[in-house]
Amino acid sequence: MVNRKELDPDGSPSAAFGARLRSLRDERGWTQDELGERMGCSGAHISAIETGRRKPTQQFAASADRTFGTGGRFERQSRVVRHRALLEGFPEYVTHEARAVEIRLYEVGVIPGLLQTPEYASALGDSTVKRGVASREQADERIALVAQRQASLMRTPLPLVFVVLDESCLLRPIGDGALMHAQFARLLEFAELPNTVLQVAPFAIGVRRPMTLPVTVLTMPDRSLMSYAESANRGHLERDSASVLPILTDYHQLQAEALSRAASMAMISQLRKGTP
Asked: Is the separation of the CB atoms in 107 and 169 below 8 Å?
């Protein structure tokens, strides 16, 4: 134990993962070699994960969850470690989104990830590479996360998903006409699901619009509230329900001002007819 490295769980997502792994291992009185034997890897690999010299793979995290009986906690935490190309704060938000019983989101200018087709997501990713904003690897990581988040919506029980799209989301062309045609079709399919409500906030709302920036509000299984919003440099996850309530009130007002579900679908259908 003389050479035992002290861990700072606040140092980085990798450090937090490693500290949790060591803490649970110590609770059970296992050596690194003993844990490695249970997980099918070497003690040296366990050491590298605990000290942050290696990042945990999804397979490693899933194995840790099975070994410690942590119910997917390691796997969720590993996503934060692996998604290094994402805006600060977003990976943590995704772990909560995957457990939320209700998701309310408002988006401006771009179709939100949960509703994007693979082609739409790829076009956005390709654009970031061409502009030098992200590497090809980083763009691919973001595209893969879109698919993972969409897959998580199929969990049991199904979460309720409320979406309000600013009209700009529909009018901003991404890719060619065929791509937008398919994206509009995807929106209509989403709107038909039994656990979703899709509305469009038209430009005509004007000053009656209570929200101008994108935001997401989550209702967790214990009915607590969280909100997530982004600035140019980072994302902010608000966990204090009392602070989120005014945002939820504004969201309800936005829904009241937005087009009805039927009128929203009619607008999207009309736009779809204008694409090849």
From this structure: yes
Q: Which of 217, 221, 222 is nearest to 244 (CA)?
A: 217
Dist. CA 275–CA 233, nearest whole Å: 34
Residue 69 in tokens: 């009986």
User: What would the pLDDT profile of 69-125 be if each residue is shown by its tens digit?
Assistant: 999 889 888 876 665 545 567 878 888 999 999 999 999 999 999 999 999 999 999
Helix locations, 192-260, DSSP H: 241-257
What 3-state DSSP class applies to 72? coil
Contact 78, 18 (CB under 8 A): no
Rg (CA), the chain: 21
Global pTM reads: 0.71
Which tokens sit at 98? 């995957």
Rounded Cα–Cα distance for residues 226 and 167 (Å)? 25
The H-or-E segment that residue 215 falls in is strand 215-219
Show the domains of the chain with their CATH numbers: 13-82 (1.10.260.40), 90-114+153-273 (3.30.870.10)
